[in-house]
Amino acid sequence: MKPNSASRRDFLIRTTTAGVLAPLAASCSNASDVSGNSPPVAIATWDNRRALTAAWDILVAGGYALDAVEAGVHVPEADPDDRSVGLGGHPDRDGRVTLDSCIMDERFRCGSVAAIEDILHPVSVARRVMEVTQHVMLAGDGARQFAIEQGFEPTNLLTEQSEREWRAWLDANNYDPEASAGYRPPINSERRDMPSIQESHDTCGMIALDTEGRLSGACTTSGWAYKVRGRVGDSPIIGAGLYVDGELAAATATGHGEEMIRAAAAHTIIERIRGGASPQEACRQAVEHIRRVTPSDPSEVQAGLLAVDRSGRFGGFALQKGFVYVVGLPDGAGEPDVAGTITDSVAVSGGTIYVVEAPYLIG
Ligand code: SD4
């Protein structure tokens, strides 16, 4: 835990008496190196620092938060070494890579694709759903068909390594995920699969506040490894894996998606913030809610939650030890006063990305 930093708090927190957060004043000297009125903030699940850097570059140039989160999550979607997202993601038990993704802007506009196949950037299909249809969510073959109609090229997402691992899983588990020990992905598999935490960059929920005070978010994943064909997780479910209330805050989630759906995790966070909780406290309360409502042994499930509000305050909290997140803050903001532990930081254009071990309920 870092010592309190009054300057950081003063920099970011402006609240009204109703507990609704107002945008930062234009005169904030810490934001002098970015355009617009509000210092940008971006935050993403796990050590998705490369993804956050891509988003950050757009934010510090004064770009739109929606463009930033879309560009940010493109990075793991296209990375064959990221085993939880997009190309190279773990397939379902039939050997098909099926992707879940959604996006939401500051005006409650949202789009989503569930169990889509053969499309490298499902988040961009989700954005097309939002922008050119009257729908919010497309699933399966229909989502794939829509993507191709919109000009997305079909791409084989099953890499040789993913296929080898899936075949080994099949041999060991006899096509029976429910019966096989260890069917549920291990807690923090995003972390353990990786040779080192610095290189890990997995299932990506990302939320951002841009210099115009606009909030947006995106969430993208290949979901539960070797899942039953057709399984959809929380990541494309508006209110579970992602929610944005442009007047108030944005939230995203990672972990065992069934728990996030059951608890409407991202929406729960937003409502707690509406009730007056800080983003940090709201994430903690939502994790407690998940622990209360899960029918599983809470020690066997993971939930990692993140939130940022319109004044730039952010927070993260997990059910289990081991959840890390990355947060980008502008030059002049100083090291943030986080709940949890800062384990690393990297200088980026116009700011710094911090890696934070989130606090948790169950050790
Ligand atoms: C899912 N929540 O499909 C996703 C998986 C995840 O980090 O977040 N992994 O359940």
Give the structural class: alpha+beta
Q: What is the succession of H and E elements?
A: HEHHEEHEHHHEEEEHHHEEEEEE
Helix content: 25-40%
CATH superfamily: (Glycosyl)asparaginase
The number of helical segments is 10
- Give the mean pLDDT: 86
What is the β-strand count? 14
Question: Reading side by side through the largest sheet, how are the strands ordered?
Answer: 4-3-2-6-5-1-11-13-12
Number of domains: 1
Rounded to the nearest angstrom, the radius of gyration is 19 Å
The main β sheet shows up as: 9 strands, mixed
Give the CATH topology.
Glutamine Phosphoribosylpyrophosphate, subunit 1, domain 1
Q: Describe it for me?
A:
The chain starts with 5 loop residues before the first helix and ends with a strand. The protein has helices at residues 6-12, 49-60, 65-77, 122-132, 140-149, 160-173, 189-192, 257-263, 265-274, 279-293, and strands spanning 41-45, 99-104, 110-116, 137-139, 204-209, 215-221, 242-245, 249-255, 303-309, 314-320, 324-330, 341-348, 351-357, 360-362. The protein has one domain (8-362): (Glycosyl)asparaginase (Glutamine Phosphoribosylpyrophosphate, subunit 1, domain 1, 4-Layer Sandwich), CATH 3.60.20.30. It is globular. By secondary structure, it is α+β, with helices and mostly antiparallel strands. 56% of the residues are buried. Strand 3 (110-116), helix 4 (122-132) and strand 4 (137-139) form a beta-alpha-beta unit. Residues 1-35 and 192-201 have low confidence and may be disordered. Helix content is 28%, strand content 23%. Bound molecules: N-hydroxy-L-asparagine. N-hydroxy-L-asparagine (SD4) is lined by residues 84, 100, 190, 202-203, 221, 223-224, 233-235, 254-257. The site of N-hydroxy-L-asparagine has 15 residues, from strand 8.
